[in-house]
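BUG: 3D viewer hangs when loading the predicted structure for this chain

Environment: internal workstation, default settings.
Expected: structure renders.
Actual: progress bar stalls at 90%.

Input used:
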Amino acid sequence: MLEDLTTAASSPTSWPAAYPQGYAVVDVETTGLARDDRIISAAVYRLDARGEVEDHWYTLVNPERDPGPVWIHGLTSDTLNSAPLFQDIAEEFSARLADRVLVAHNAVFDWQMIAREYARAKREAPVRHRLCTIALSKALDLPLPNYKLETLAAHFGVVQRRAHHALDDARVLAEAFRPSLRAAAAGGVRLPLHECRPLTEWAERPAPRIGQQAGYGGYRAGSWRPSRKRPACPYPNPGRYEEGKRLKQGMRVAFSGDTSVERELLEDRAIEAGLHVATSISRVTSLLVTNDPDSGTSKVVKARQFGTPIVDEAAFGQLLGDVELAEDKGAPASRGRR
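Structure tokens produced before the viewer hung:
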């Protein structure tokens, strides 16, 4: 724990050489929280290596659908109809993100929404690492009653003017991140950076009917998305995957973290190959697929506790091409090839 964050927050004389050279503090407002929800506004504050603000940028985005809970973000269909589409602002957005660490509060959400928008536009987000200010607050052991943005802002004396407005939320986060970064540098704290894997494949789903969203916070007006309930795997679980050997039909496979292929597509491929896709880790899980085995997620932690084998997405993709059939142990599973 740092002894005096107030003192540490002043710019230290020396600066850790391993720290990034720049940051893009980001906030996006969306039509909801689900996989097929869309960005309706985005803001970026660019900061230099020591957290000094360089500039900021804000845009509305036409989601081409119902704007979702207007009472939360205040953006109506009339306001958004004349806004640019995401593909029209993608280049400018990229220029703001390029060669910087993406910083956000609950960064995995903002990153996933951004990655999906780029995938829809058949482009790739120029983000390689993200930093979550919630994780940084925990690493600094800040004395916070909770990890809401307004609580973090109040801790550093930052005044929030318009909650759920992307530009103001990004400003507030940037002002709270700056002293956090300096405290981390002064205390030699390792920044909680996570690798980002831009989506390379995306499967679009039908747009929702007006007034129907998948959910935003506690709001659920009904579900428009196709059910993802999967049929039971017809094969018994043959046990854990063994390094250097083939996957076998019936093995229980779980996924954690970012994947370059959209998660649901990857899960579909696993099921087509005769594997059982598990939503959690248990003692009978055969394999965990993750690109970030040091992330500390609950699945990774449990996998290590149970001794569950872990492979990355690329290795799993290769294994899917030659899955051992449950009926004939000598023949590959042709359904696993794509």
